[in-house]
Write a structure and sequence with these properties.
The protein is an alpha/beta fold. It has one domain: Rossmann fold. Helix content is about 30%, strand content about 20%. Helix 1 packs across helix 2 and helix 3 crosses helix 4. It starts with a strand and ends with a strand.
């Protein structure tokens, strides 16, 4: 399985709720820079948090790649989601090439859990950072971090 984990681009510092924060212009540019790394990959799904900034990030990637399938929105990719639950959900998908679009602290903890088997050293995922993981199964400690790209 190949799994890409993308943190949303830079977002506005404030909104009525955290879930409503939108991408800034710089955040959009960051996302497009990261999306370029995904060109030509055989992704089967783009799965995103329901938060506005993650939805905007996923839509930008979707359009930049000319991805045929719609973005899947799930409740288990919000900032405070449990990384163990995310692993369970990914495994149930039965897909081989997936992009997840989410937030800190989840993305850092998720990458660490997949690579090291624990969350004690979260991966340094700044806005629009893209982690590429590979392994037989999406299980704790059983995936290899192939690359971690940071946006400009």
């Amino acid at each position: 399985m190949k799994l890409w984990v993308l943190r949303h681009g830079e977002a506005q510092p404030r909104a009525n709720t955290d879930a409503e924060r939108r991408l800034t212009e710089h955040g959009r540019e960051q996302v497009l820079f990261s999306a370029a790394r995904l060109l030509g990959l055989p992704l089967q799904a783009i799965i995103a948090s329901p938060y506005v900034r993650a939805q905007q990030t996923a839509a930008l990637v979707h359009d930049a790649l000319g991805f045929a399938e719609p973005v899947r929105t799930v409740s288990w990719l919000t900032p405070e989601s449990d990384p163990q639950q995310v692993l369970s959900e990914i495994e149930q998908l039965g897909l081989e090439q997936v992009l997840l679009v989410s937030h800190q602290p989840l993305v850092g903890s998720l990458v660490s859990l997949l690579e090291h088997g624990h969350r004690q050293q979260p991966a340094p995922m700044s806005t629009a950072s893209l982690a590429q993981l590979e392994g037989e199964w999406p299980l704790a400690g059983l995936m290899t971090l192939r690359a971690l790209h940071h946006s400009q």
